[in-house]
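B., you asked whether I could sanity-check this one before it goes into the benchmark set. Here's the sequence:
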Amino acid sequence: MANSGRTTHGEPAADGTSSAFAPVSQGVAPGSTDDFTRLTRLLERTIGRGFKLVFLEAATPLERQEKLAAMRPLLIRLQVVVRELDVAIWNPERLPAMNFWGAMIQAIPSESVSRRDCLVLYGFEDVMYLGAADGGDLLRQINAQRDLLARDYDCVWILFIHPHSRQAWKRFAPDFCDFASLWIESERITIVSTTTTALPEHLSVVTTSPTMAEQHWPAELAAASRLIGLSHYDEALDQIHTFLAQHAGDHERQRDLAVARMLESQVLFIRGQPAQALERLRTEIIPVFESAGDDWSRTEAWDCIGDILFQQGELDEALRIRKQEQLPVYERLGDVRSRAVTLGKIADILFARGELDEALRIRQEEELPVYERLGDVRSRAV
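And here's what the prediction gave me:
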């Protein structure tokens, strides 16, 4: 988790470029050259000239890091100081009584901010879904305080939000959203399915093989897992809750019920309830998988725990889980793709700890060759 008001400067790549927005001819996403050009023009024309608001959608922390890394050479050239703030540091239980503007003043005193600064805010989804049933409390506050915020933070704002929360922002903070000079949506991702897994008909489908873990799950839960990966949380929960209702009390299906609860915990985490998700995974779900001897599902549960700890900034324990609870299992089971994905998450942790050389080595020598061998063009590009 980012420190409150953390100031970053970043370093450009050796050639002064970055691939997250594909500003050069490499053509690797997320994002597009047009998006990067629009953002570049906006920053070049407005830095130092007062309040400007940019929304950047990012579905994962890694996508956010990649997009921010792509911007750093430009920000360095423009002599901009980036002030990062993870709003998830604010206790969600205090949200109804919390004053967003007041919390901002405490985290980043307005008198310390110049017109040449750039505020980068993220983590809204970690708190917005706990304030009210509709998830609107935080956004209503931002909307009501928009003039105060623009007055006291008279610089460029870049807000990273999850694509899933786009409509909530426009519904609950319409006036604040009207301030936006630029809104860059996350790239469209098509859903991954199999010929044996039913999915809602309105979703576009690409036929491919399920993950190794999903091959061991009931078809409706495998489909729910992929819906979660595509941010279709409500549809995923519909399938999960239907499965739980149909098989409640069936002692012969305790493992499958634990899979359903694990997927439900993933949504809890994504929607801002990491503590509850963590508790359920550790005390209610992993013991069932261990008792059933289901290494595939147990490792998936550990993966979710690792994701939560990484987002919370508990990097040492997240790294231990990747190295001790996941990698050995994937190696023993011969799941080379999951092993490569886990190595990528280890590289993410090392990157966050500043161990850039080792993170780069893992990417180049251990992760990338696997995707090339498997013909996974998208993962190779990312």
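One thing to flag: Residues 21 and 32 are 5 Å apart (CA to CA). Otherwise nothing jumped out at me.
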